[in-house]
Amino acid sequence: MFSNPKFRMVSIGTAVSKLFVKSNCQRFKLFQRKLLLRSYNTIKRKTAKDENFLSKYLYNKIKAKGPITVADYMKDVLQNPVSGYYISKDMFGESGDFVTSPEISQIFGEMLAVWFLNEWSKIGFPKPLQIIEMGPGRGTLSSDILKVFSHFKALHNVSLHLVEISPVLSELQAKSLCSSSFLTNNMSNPIYREGISHQGISVYWYKQLKDIPDGFSIILAHEFFDALPIHKFHKTYAGYKEVLIDIDKIESEEIKFRYVLARQDTPMLKVLVKPNENREHVEVSPDSMLIYEQICRRIVSSGGIALICDYGHDGTGTDTFRAFKKHKQVDPLVQPGTSDLTADVDFNVIREVAYNYGDIIYLGPIKQRNFLHRIGIEYRVNALKENMTDKKQIDNLIACYNFLTDEEKMGERFKFCALVPSTLKKIIDMHPIVGFM
Ligand SMILES: C[S@@+](CC[C@H](N)C(=O)[O-])C[C@H]1O[C@@H](n2cnc3c(N)ncnc32)[C@H](O)[C@@H]1O
């Protein structure tokens, strides 16, 4: 019934790769590369117009393989290289699907920057310093952090490293952060974009954390892990079963999907659900676990501090897989690719990964309102207020402050945790990490 877009891609790819085999002439290779890019862009243009591309893609996949895991579904919907939600558009702000703390007010990034500067100062400002941000969105948080570091003249021997899968967002980040930037166009180089920030430091873009060179690092992940795929399990009379996604029906040309339970125990069920588990729904993200471990390895071997901020719970959350479109919660299975998919971060898993890795001190989780208050957000708000004369500006500042800290807004649902190497224990005992104690 539906043409298979994946097959179309493969045939164009095969045609071009056949050309590659025929010649090793450099100019011809350049020509071929342009051809490949043009074919890819044509597919992208066509599919960008086709809002149902992902529905058809998933339909074909499920027809061929049977029901897929929620993790597979999330990965395709969010990260599909042609039409994935994160790959093809800017989804932030009022006209987008959701808003994040750094986008609400510069105060948020400023407070985090001051926190990092304070913790970095306690160990004598080791250099060179790599600031790493995972999933930087529009680049607003890194931009606010660099402004504060620059204000304190703390950017000597510092570089910025961004982990981002979206070509569209990496371009937006470059525009917001850099005075100049370029795509490296070198398949063997894990750095796919490079630039110089407005403050004059080097900025690099990668697809994966593990590609960033070792070195003392400040690592920041804000609303990054909630976008990574989860496996979902449901408690039944016959024990836990993995939740899968199947085709439901086709109604007025629209493909509908539905949840089903796996009949047999899946490999992920055996590995991810603990014997003493008791929650009705269990959601686990092995992709996130892998990155938590990479963060631990990095800060134990090269030194550093990591701050993870996200929607989350401490091992008690159950059914949190959801979708957002135009600031409203919608059904994650309707029109895949047109809404953001997310699941709460399980901070207890971060703690466990850190504990199992060893030589790591884990702090948190703590609610955003408590963290921001403890690190002195009121002082910053008051200082800004004193320099304002316009009532509208003051009202706006207060509204932003409330949005970041109110229990019903972002103050309660967002949590923070920090990871530091246990070699810093003596220093931390003398000067506890601010915000967590
Ligand atoms: C919800 S947004 C958060 C953006 C930003 N941190 C903020 O708080 O405004 C998630 C970000 O992570 C990126 N992202 C999602 N999955 C990713 C992955 N697997 N690898 C790298 N980046 C990813 C998205 O493209 C986007 O920039």
TrEMBL record:
Gene3D superfamilies: 3.40.50.12710. One of its GO terms (molecular function) is protein-arginine omega-N symmetric methyltransferase activity. InterPro entries: NDUFAF7, NDUFAF7_sf, SAM-dependent_MTases_sf. It holds the Pfam family Methyltransf_28. It is found in: Mitochondrion. Its EC number is 2.1.1.320. The keyword Mitochondrion applies. It catalyses: L-arginyl-[protein] + 2 S-adenosyl-L-methionine = N(omega),N(omega)'-dimethyl-L-arginyl-[protein] + 2 S-adenosyl-L-homocysteine + 2 H(+). GO terms for cellular component: mitochondrion. Keywords: Methyltransferase, Mitochondrion, Transferase. One of its GO terms (biological process) is mitochondrial respiratory chain complex I assembly. Arginine methyltransferase involved in the assembly or stability of mitochondrial NADH:ubiquinone oxidoreductase complex (complex I). PANTHER family: PROTEIN ARGININE METHYLTRANSFERASE NDUFAF7, MITOCHONDRIAL. Belongs to the NDUFAF7 family. This is Protein arginine methyltransferase NDUFAF7.
